[in-house]
Design brief:
The chain is of the alpha+beta class. It folds into four domains: 459 residues, no CATH class; 142 residues, no CATH class; 114 residues, Jelly Rolls (Sandwich); 78 residues. The chain is 45% helix and 15% strand. The chain has a five-stranded antiparallel β-sheet with strand order 12-14-19-16-17, with no helix packed on it. Strands 22-23-29-25-26 form a five-stranded antiparallel β-sheet, with no helix packed on it. Strand 1 and strand 2 form a beta hairpin. It is globular. The two termini are 34 Å apart.
């Protein structure tokens, strides 16, 4: 009986609304051979370079290491994680990943992706049925148009946002109930769920809710007094939602101040971002490709059935003119937001998106389909004058696109013709007189499903994906190498490597590394990395250019290097899935470990690593360093020698090249900062810098941000330089070590007519002096007796006055220190690290991390939840007493 009720005449439209989008996408993915149905995977762009590793971290944290919930040393050299959870990992769908370890996580991603399509359709269907807007076959018709919207297809690779499409209809249902019943709880509850699931998209939903309230105020207008009442309840609902989610929002807000908020726009340009007519091209099917990811127009394609229904909303006489006017104003505001910079910035919280522009276009898709569903609430046949109006608008749209097709590269003539055919068939269908409502509803569903399926195929066929083999082999090789180190390593240590699949490899394999990429990355680490010669960017740090100094300072106790196979075929194989991104001649100074190596990876142990903490001169607390520098080698020397309380000019020396050969390049006498120009512009220009080391010391060449692979190719002794390709500050390249008497040739091949040798200098590290400093700093280590990601305890013997416990834990107000059981204030040194002042003698030092504002936010949420529940209980008792 219960099962029959579960599948009764009221629920079957919901089931179809769920299963139809899910099956359409599943069918397409099977056709594309996505794992587990083939050799490909859904990994592409950020999903393959960022999210998949964070999902692996999510799984490892919940199953194996809950201490990483608030803080993780897998996030570069250490970082807070509340902001990461709030932006990337709060979706309940992520629990599915618990069942998919290692390389099988791509199967989990497949399942989660299609489920999100299904729940988007189900959610919209729920809105339609609960508001009595539609029934029968038209429920899945409009729900499918919504679930497979252009925004959803274009952003399925940003799957952390997809929950929004399922939650938005429930927030709007809450608003509808606020207007019709006066009840706030549905709106406040679902808005709180949205803010917890993803605060970033939740912010956009809040903005759209404000617009929707203006529309709802005219739709449900009674009198001015009632409108004020609705406005107050709307404001109260929003505040209650914020309070219920404060336990997450407050610590996240603090985290944002340390990360994304550092990059907010300070200047607003009151201008159009592009010619608005270009938006019309997005009504053509298949107008999404790779070029549209970094920059382009908003993706809002929906089925032409929904588009015509949307137009019909403004042509139906049953809607009041005030309702139509408010709907038109909301539409105009959204459309203007798609091309007017100040409004674009408003939707994106005062930050231009890095890739994936107009991320809020899902609200326009919702708006089109929702108004269209209301317009066809009573019948799906339109009058002749309405059809002619639609025809005129459609002809105008397609004519504009056709005449400007060369200006919109993402539109093909084939797709334009297909869209014209779809629009024509749909318009003819709408004008036909319909005697039997049921059969025409089914035809409408077929039309919409076909229309949206064509857009899915035409759009996603433009996208390439990472092969399952490439991902799986790399993941397995990395896991095997890391697990060997974990099985033998003791205490706290960090691991470096010369190869990279993504900057979040440490999170994927759950080890303490030094790379990271996320939108909630604290800016102090990229800033520090950039100043010591490592590639960095907004939200990015890659430890690919470590020197012996930085390896020692940052406690890189182990280094993994790709093992070069003897077979050339194998070498080609390895190159495809273990990409080398670092040239590290210094590995010859470290101890190769057969015990820790695997068939794919050679592991080295660094005898000069200082540990997570050590006694150092308190001069480091007074050292002032600028945020950036053009001389990262000198910066390293200054920091290291200050810590060791030794001369800050004894480690590094600038060296001259023995010979410089110019081929088709005009000669210059001074190299650093010189601008090189070709002699014959049509021929290749090359420069060869030669030197012969007189010692076995380490040699480094610094390359300014202008000296990247976009401007030149780089070679060492005729072989292409292995280097992470993007950097915005000067990097240090390790070109020689233990090469006494061997000529080293550093070649540059110009890709343009001129080349600026920005910060181009050859340096020598005095290895003997370095070892002396390292040995001195290793004399009083912080002997860690217990450690997790958020609590570290150890003992240290301070042998001299004027020393501090220096750690390479990134500074944060969340870290709290106790010395011998007593609370002690920490210090921020060199704008980056935590140091603890100590007196001479033996001490037990404990560092504990507590996310700032987590307790405050939890109290606000707790009080709000208890107060809300208490309010409902009191009201119910009063009602029962009255009855």
């Amino acid at each position: 009986m219960k099962l029959r009720r579960f599948f009764d005449k009221r629920t079957w439209p919901l089931w179809i609304s769920f299963w139809l989008p899910l099956l359409i996408m599943t069918g397409y993915f099977i056709y594309r051979h996505m794992a587990p149905f083939g050799s490909s995977s859904l990994l592409t762009v950020d999903l393959g370079q960022q999210y998949v590793d964070l999902f692996a971290y999510f799984r490892h944290t919940l199953l194996h290491d809950p201490s990483a919930l608030f803080y993780s040393f897998s996030k570069t050299i250490g970082g807070e994680m509340v902001g990461v959870w709030a932006y990337y990992l709060m979706s309940p769908f992520n629990l599915i990943y618990l069942f998919f370890p290692g390389q099988s996580i791509t199967t989990g991603i497949f399942i989660v992706t299609v489920l999100k399509y299904g729940f988007a359709g189900l959610s919209f269907a729920w809105l339609l049925t609960k508001t009595h807007t539609q029934k029968g076959w038209l429920v899945p018709t409009f729900s499918t148009a919504y679930a497979l919207m252009g925004w959803m297809v274009a952003n399925q690779l940003n799957m952390i946002w997809l929950d929004t499409v399922a939650i938005l209809p429930l927030v709007i249902l809450g608003l509808e109930r606020l207007f019709t019943t006066g009840k706030v709880r549905y709106f406040a509850g679902w808005l709180a769920v949205m803010l917890i699931d993803n605060y970033y998209m939740g912010y956009m939903v809040v903005l759209f809710s404000c617009l929707y309230w203006l529309y709802g105020a005219t739709k449900y207008w009674q009198d001015f007094k009632t409108m004020i009442k609705h406005a107050l309840k709307f404001a109260w609902g929003g505040l209650l939602a914020a309070a219920l989610s404060a336990w997450l929002l407050l610590p996240t807000f603090w985290a944002l101040i340390q990360s994304k908020a550092q990059y907010n726009e300070t200047k607003i340009h009151w201008k159009l971002e592009y010619a608005p007519w270009k938006m019309l091209a997005k009504f053509v099917t298949g107008t999404f490709n790779f070029d549209q990811m970094p920059s382009g127009q908003p993706n809002f394609y929906v089925a032409w059935f929904a588009i015509f229904a949307f137009i019909l909303f403004f042509l139906r006489r049953r809607f009041k003119w005030t309702v139509k006017l408010s709907a038109l104003l909301v539409t105009g505001f959204i459309l203007l937001s798609f091309c007017y910079e100040p409004l674009d910035l408003l939707w994106h919280a005062d930050q231009f998106p890095v890739w994936y522009p107009y991320r809020f276009s899902f609200v326009f898709c919702f708006w089109i389909v929702w108004l269209g569903a209301q317009a066809m609430a009573d019948k799906i046949t339109i009058k002749l004058w309405q059809a002619l109006t639609m025809l005129a608008l459609t002809v105008g749209l397609f004519t504009t696109v056709y005449l400007n097709i060369k200006k919109v590269s993402y539109v093909t003539q084939a797709n334009l013709l297909i869209t014209i055919a779809l629009a024509a068939i749909t318009l003819i269908f709408l004008t036909l007189p319909k005697q039997r409502r049921l059969i025409y509803q089914i035809v409408a569903l077929i039309l919409v499903a076909t229309d949206m399926s064509i857009n899915v195929v035409a759009s996603l066929n433009n996208i390439s994906y990472v092969s399952q083999s490439e991902f799986g082999k790399y993941t397995t090789a990395l896991d095997n190498a890391v697990n060997k180190i974990k099985a033998n390593g003791k205490g706290f240590y960090r691991i470096g490597k010369t190869f990279t699949r993504t900057k979040d490899d440490p999170m994927q394999a759950a080890y303490n590394g030094a790379d990271h990429f996320s939108s909630t990355f604290e800016s102090i680490i990229p800033n520090f990395f950039g100043s010591i010669g490592q590639p960095d960017g907004d939200g990015v740090a890659a430890y690919t250019n470590g020197t012996m100094i930085t390896d020692s300072l940052l406690d890189m106790q182990y280094f993994m290097d790709k093992k070069v196979p003897t077979s050339q075929n194998d070498n080609t194989n390895y190159r495809s899935y273990i990409p080398v991104t670092s040239t590290k001649k210094d590995l010859t100074n470290y101890q190769k470990s057969k015990k820790l190596s695997t068939s794919k990876v050679t592991t080295y142990k660094n005898p000069y690593a200082l540990g997570l903490g050590f006694a150092a001169s308190d001069k480091i607390t007074k050292l002032k360093v600028s945020k950036t520098t053009g001389d990262p080698i000198a910066r390293q020397e200054l920091i290291y020698q200050t810590l060791a309380n030794r001369s800050t000019s004894s480690l590094i020396s600038a060296e001259n090249f023995n010979e410089v050969v110019f081929q088709n390049v005009k000669k210059v006498t001074t190299l650093t900062g010189a601008v090189l120009n070709k002699e014959n512009l049509s021929k290749t220009g090359s420069i060869y810098f030669k030197f012969t080391p007189t010692t076995n010391d380490s040699y480094y060449i610094t390359l300014g941000a202008n000296l990247t692979t976009s401007n030149a190719s780089f070679y060492i002794n005729g072989k292409e330089l292995k280097q992470y390709p993007t950097y915005r500050h000067t990097i240090a390249v390790n070109v020689a070590s233990n090469s006494k008497g061997k000529t080293v040739t550093f070649g540059i091949q110009m890709k343009k007519t001129s080349l600026w040798l920005q910060n181009f200098t050859l340096y020598k590290l005095n290895n003997s002096q370095f070892k002396t400093s390292a040995k001195k700093l290793q004399q009083s280590p912080w002997n860690i007796s217990a450690h997790s990601n958020r609590k570290i305890t150890g003992t240290i013997n301070i042998k001299h006055n004027h020393q501090v416990l220096m750690t390479t834990i990134p500074y944060s107000k969340g870290w709290h220190a106790t010395v011998d059981g007593k609370s002690v204030a920490t210090k921020k040194v060199i704008n980056t690290f935590v140091a603890v002042p100590l007196s001479k003698g033996k001490h037990t030092v404990t560092l504990t991390y507590r996310p700032p504002f987590l307790v405050t936010g939890s109290i606000i949420t707790g009080v709000s939840a208890i107060g809300t529940i208490g309010w409902f209980v009191i009201r119910r008792r009063r009602r029962n007493h009255a009855n």
